[in-house]
Write a structure and sequence with these properties.
Blueprint (H helix, E strand, L loop, with lengths): L2 H22 L6 H10 L3 H10 L6 H15 L1 H4 L3 H10 L3 H12 L8 H13 L5 H17 L4 H14 L3 H20 L1
Length: 192
């Protein structure tokens, strides 16, 4: 068998193994094993991020982003190194489930300089889009708190967007995120 065919076979085999592991993740008892598989596998996290950013059919991007969220929750120190790729995947995706999951991942990590302006613009854009899912709006607000803490001069831009969103949608999770933003602003203003 030619070398190029062998390489293709191994790529397909890894892809199939990844799908098996991603499907296993639905079983809560299997999650630690699945997380370990992707953390220990060479390029495992990078592969998940590529799947999440892909235009592949459900469930690949959705499940990959879900696993990424759990990796960040369980291995925040190690996953911090992947934050640029996490941001890239968020900026590329238009899948609401993937966006929500990736946003959960990066709100658990500190704000970094990488593509900071683009990320800020994307968060504001998603928050201003009424058709985006409420969970994505909530996660955008939580990340925007980090922006407001680092750049207090942005508060006057962020606050009206949050107020409009929370006035248009009275869901409890959105109201709670808006209140958390207000509390963070109050703390920032007291420090000034």
């Amino acid at each position: 068998m030619p070398v190029s065919c062998l390489a293709g076979f191994f790529i397909i085999r890894h892809h199939m193994n990844d799908l098996v592991y991603l499907n296993m993740f639905r079983d809560a008892a299997m999650r630690p094993m699945v997380l370990q598989y992707f953390m220990e596998r060479k390029y495992g996290v990078e592969t998940l991020l590529k799947y999440a950013a892909s235009k592949e059919a459900y469930p690949l991007p959705d499940y990959a982003s879900w696993v990424i969220t759990h990796l960040v929750k369980n291995f925040p120190g190690q996953m911090g190194d992947y934050q640029p790729q996490l941001i890239d995947a968020f900026l590329i995706s238009d899948n609401q489930t993937v966006l929500r999951n990736l946003a959960v991942g990066f709100i658990l990590l500190p704000l970094i300089d990488y593509r900071e302006g683009e990320l800020y613009d994307a968060l504001i854009r998603h928050l201003m889009t009424p058709d985006d899912k409420v969970a994505l709006h909530v996660n955008c607000i939580y990340k925007l708190i980090q922006f407001a803490q680092k750049y207090p001069e942005l508060i006057h831009e962020i606050q009206p967007v949050i107020e409009i969103r929370t006035e248009q949608n009275k869901q409890a999770s959105l109201s709670a995120a808006g209140k958390k933003f207000s509390k963070a602003i109050n703390r920032i203003n007291r420090v000034k």
